[in-house]
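== Folding the chain ==

***
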Amino acid sequence: MTADAEHRSGAFPVAINRLGGAASTTGASIVRSRLFIKYVALFVTVVVLALVANGVFEIWFTYEAQKSSLISIQHEEAEAAAGKIEQFITEIESQIGWTTQLPWSSSTLDQRRFDALRLLRQVPAITELAQIDATGHEQLRVSRLTMDVVGSGIDYSHKPEFTEAMAHKVYYGPVYFRRQSEPYMTIALSGTRRDTGVSIAQVNLKLIWDVVSNIKVGEHGLAYVVDGDGRLIAHPDISLVLRNTDMSKLAQVKSARAAEADHAGEEVEEAENIEGQKVLTAYAPVHPLRWLVFVETPIQEAYAPLYASIRRTGFVLFGALLLAFIAGMFLAGRMVVPIQALRTGAARIGSGDLGQRINIKTGDEVEALANQFNDMAGRLQESYAGLEQKVEDRTKELSESLEQQTATSEVLRVISSSPGELEPVFQAMLESATRICEAKFGLMFEYANGMFRALSWRDIPPQLANYSREPRVWGPDTALGQVARTKQTVHVADMLADRAYGDKDPGRLAAVEGGGARTIVAVPMLREDELIGAFTIFRQEVRPFTDKQIALVTSFAAQAVIAIENARLLNELRQRTDDLSASLEDLRTAQDRLVQTEKLASLGQLTAGIAHEIKNPLNFVNNFSGVSVEMIDELQTALADVKADDKTRVEITELMDTLKGNLEKIVQHGKRADSIVKNMLLHSREGSGEHRPVDINAIVEESLNLAYHGARAEKQGFNITLERSFDPAAGEVDLYPQEITRVLLNLISNGFYAATKRKGQLGNGDFEPVLAAATKNLGDRVEIRIRDNGTGIPPEVKEKMFNPFFTTKPAGEGTGLGLSISHDIIVKQHAGSIFVDTAPGEFTEFRIVLPRKAASLAKTGGRA
């Protein structure tokens, strides 16, 4: 075969040389005639079509986007103006309603007049108020513009102000102009009882005129208001309103009135305004009055960006045409390149590069010759590719099988090397399953009492880990819910398209939104047809698992059952062994406890001694550093009178400033070291004082007061709002009062710091710092919540906030031991729990749960 290949590669150059010789005699004539003209025309045509198509699409989409954006803005402006008008009218009705409460009699006339005068003072828009009795006769009129009238007896019984108000409770009169300058309307309102009569108010609508006049959309856009009959009642050009202009014939007004009448009209977006100018228009109804608010922008102004885009597209098209013509002439003049490509490609094929293809599209003999070479190379490549593909497929299958066997053997090795220890086994299984199946993360669950609880996990996001740790019943449509119901393998290709996500199942939301999972396979772990757990792996993209991958996970699930069974048998064996040697173990345990107690006592004494020894040199460093700073200040004062040249004086000043800065840093870090030593002593303590029953509400209240007054004494101008919500049923808790007070003071002080810091970041604007404390009775437990509206805690800080010496406060403001000590006091000393809920930039809430017998549980090793 090698000799044959070499023979062929030697034959190709001969053919190429012959082809090159033929091309050299005819190339010039081909370029000058048919090929040149054809390729120039083709290139220019393609470029023109592409640019024209692109320009048309760009103009169309720009037109639609610009029109949609402007219509949306105008709708918002119209709705905002309509809302202001509706609010104005509603408030007027509410105020008038108070004047219709009393029945008519001689004893209520003074009270009604007092109410009317008060209404005119409270509502400047009402210029005149007339009160009509139940028979339709005017009994009282109070006005800003004329004299007040009492008992005029004018008959209103046949006027619409009275009849409509009595029939429909409220009447809105048409708009009119007083003194041909300001718009007014009549509002009549009847009382809840028939004998209370009707109140008729004349309302100044100048506010509506001001609202319309202030609406500007673009440079020449404007707004106006028409009533239910299409008559103009508000417009920036008051002369049009005073002329009682009829707008009902405009297309946009006619369409809006039809839409409001039967809700079937089609909204007009482009129309002509009263001046015959084309405009973009949008409207919003004013429901109580059947008015319509229109906002319009001239078409010329609205589509100005579109016209500019068309001009730019034209310039680009012209430039591209010129460039295409020049490039076409250049490329056509270079048509000898296909001949050279044919020569080069044939040489590469002849040398053994069978994947090489000669791509020439000339429509002549050169293309035919290139196709013959390509066909020959394709047949040769197929003969080799078939064999190579088979070898590659077989190699891939062997590699996958070897990888799976290696993973299985590794799991078996871990099982054999860790008898009775399930965590290493589960971790090895999860690591192998996620790696071989190309999954993002995985979990191993145990199943008991109808609930799943995560035993082990790998690379799992924190939110899903927090959700899975606690035993819980998963929804019936989730993968785990289906496993519990059917005891069969469940494979969900897209968790977003699954029913559980559509029903907002908490478990599915935790997996998808908290873990970013999209594809899941869940395999049951069965022991004699009894479900004892589940093995799950996840992908964060929609990519179903293969049958081989699911079979591998099923194998791991079976091995996990074997490991659990082995661990159970081993534990039973160990338990029996332990029972037989109970007396010896008790003795050894007592000895170990005695030794550990002695070690802890010695360690406490050693820590105290080290702390006292460290404090002396720290005090020395702090005191002498402070004195040195003062001496440098005195030295600077003394050198001020010493004569020296400017260069020397500058150098002395720089040296003293540097030395002073170094000493101040020594003082700062010395104080921090002293604080760390104190907190280390506190952190190593087992507890202080005697435990006793304490009223939890009283201890929280006392801690709030101590922290608040301490902060005000420490920081001038400190202020914060304290909110209390104490459950009277919270009652008493058996605890160490001094230690719990210490925890509460620390959390409250941290809340003060965070809220004050956020106020400083916002520039002391409208933000008000607030700290809330609450208690709640939980039966055999009690809950304490401390919440502030401060800066919040980022996720990366939240994970480490209870670690000793971890702090985000500036140097000198915290040692990083406060929350660590608080955690030990709550969890270790009182057998309770502490949780944190926070949102960066919004709030932080600490939730403490203490058993009623907290101190007793902690001594006996119990848990809340």
Observations:
- Residues 34-97 form the longest helix (64 residues).
- Confidence is low (pLDDT under 50) at residues 1-33, 593-601.
- The CA atoms of residues 123 and 641 lie 74 Å apart.
- The radius of gyration is 44 Å.
